[in-house]
Amino acid sequence: MQENFSMRLSRALTLRGIKPIELSEKTGLPKSGISQYLSGACIPKDKNVRKIAEILNINPDWLLGHSVQMDIIIDNNISKDINNKRIFPILGVVKAGYNYLARENWIGHISIDKEVSDPENYYALKISGDSMQPILYENDIVLVHQQNDVESGQIGIVLIDNEEATVKKIIKYEDYIELIAFNSYYPPKKLTQKNNFKIIGKVTEARISKIFE
User: Fold this and answer.
1) Residue tagged active-site, from 114, 168, 169, 202
2) Which of 29, 104, 161, 195 has a CA-to-CA distance to 114 between 20 and 30 Å?
3) Which residue, 67, 97, 112, sits at the end of a domain?
């Protein structure tokens, strides 16, 4: 089923780190109205959709559930359409023990209008599974910067037991880290120095698929 306005508004609020009451204050729309939008009880008028889209810095057509390709930049909370300028490979999976950036492992590419100082250290990864819903869905694309550490609270790529890598929010503690899934069905996974794992990248952007089924 294709996402509707309430589902996409919820996703955008989460990605932006904005609470419904803050959206009400920034747009001047009543809190009760925002609650109704989020519950799916009603859809705002066009002028209010534009107000919400402006505050969230996102395409209003995407909010309305239309099939519009959007990019959300997680690092600095900026969203914009793309003017194909820089190409990065898309990988279906990331595994240990081989050169996963070799061209034969590409399943496609994405074009990003973004200047980076080290483009050779970027790649894109296709999301598989539902552990990161309702923020990242099956077949969404994340742009990853190759690095062996991230700050606590960032979304990273972690390779566990030399198997396929996983995309999770990483919370750091003194003696261990926790991998947090956005889907509450999946409990946090605790990893200590005894576990065979390594951080191999940080997610910098998430490209939302056109249609979710």
Assistant:
1) 168
2) 104
3) 67
